[in-house]
What we know:
The complex is a heterodimer of chains A (110) and B (114).
Chain A: E1 4-7, E2 10-14, E3 19-25, E4 32-37, E5 43-49, E6 55-58, E7 61-65, E8 71-76, E9 85-93, E10 97-100, E11 104-109
Parallel strand pairs in A: 2-11
Antiparallel strand pairs in A: 1-3, 3-8, 4-5, 4-9, 6-7, 7-8, 9-10, 9-11
Chain B: E1 4-7, E2 10-13, E3 19-25, E4 31-38, E5 42-51, E6 54-57, E7 65-66, E8 76-78, E9 87-94, E10 104-105, E11 109-113
Parallel strand pairs in B: 2-11
Antiparallel strand pairs in B: 1-3, 3-8, 4-5, 4-9, 5-6, 7-8, 9-10, 9-11
Amino acid sequence: GQQVMQIPQYQHVQEGEDFTTYCNSSTTLSNIQWYKQRPGGHPVFLIQLVKSGEVKKQKRLTFQFGEAKKNSSLHITATQTTDVGTYFCAGLQGTYKYIFGTGTRLKVLA
Amino acid sequence: EAQVTQNPRYLITVTGKKLTVTCSQNMNHEYMSWYRQDPGLGLRQIYYSMNVEVTDKGDVPEGYKVSRKEKRNFPLILESPSPNQTSLYFCASSLLRVAGMSYTFGSGTRLTVV
C-alpha cells in the first residue's frame, strides 16, 4: 500500500538556525497537508498544497510540493522555541483518505 | 467552540477488560476517524466513518471496534485489550469534500494496558 515517509525522524537545532523536514511518497499524491503537534498536544492543521510545484508561506514557514507530486518539504527559517513539536505530512490517497507520514520531532535549543 | 472531545484523557487498564473511548464532535462533520500514535510510526488509521452507520477498516483495525449510530459520536471499543494496544489514541473529524479535508483532532487518550 501507499507509504509516506518523513526524514529526519528527529532534529535538534539551536534557536535561530533553519530547519527542514522532507516527506516522500511511494505514489503520486493528489494533495498534501501539513500538521503540527506540540509536545503533549494533538495535531493541528497548518496548510494544504494541491498543485505541482506549489509553494506557500506562513510567516517563517515555507511549504513546497514537488513537481512530480510525490514529495513535499517544510522549511522553517530562524527557528524559535515556539516551533518545537512534531511535524506531520499527510498525503491524499484516493478521494478521501489521508495517509500520515511518520513525523519529524523538532527540538529547539535556546 | 468547534471541537472534538475525547474521553478519558488517560486510562490504565488490565489485559482483557473491555473498554470504550468516547469521541464527540460539534461541527456536523460527516467524516470521523480513529488513529493511534506510536514512536517512529506516526499516525496510523484504525477505523473511519464517512457518515452515520457507514464505517470501514483503516490500516490497523485488529482488536478494535467502532460504531456510528449518531453523526456526532464515534466511540472506539477494545473488547479484550492487550499490552500491544498501549498507545496514544486520537479521534479526528472533517467535512467530507473532494476539494480537501482538514482534520480536527481531539486532545488524545493515552491508554496503558498492563
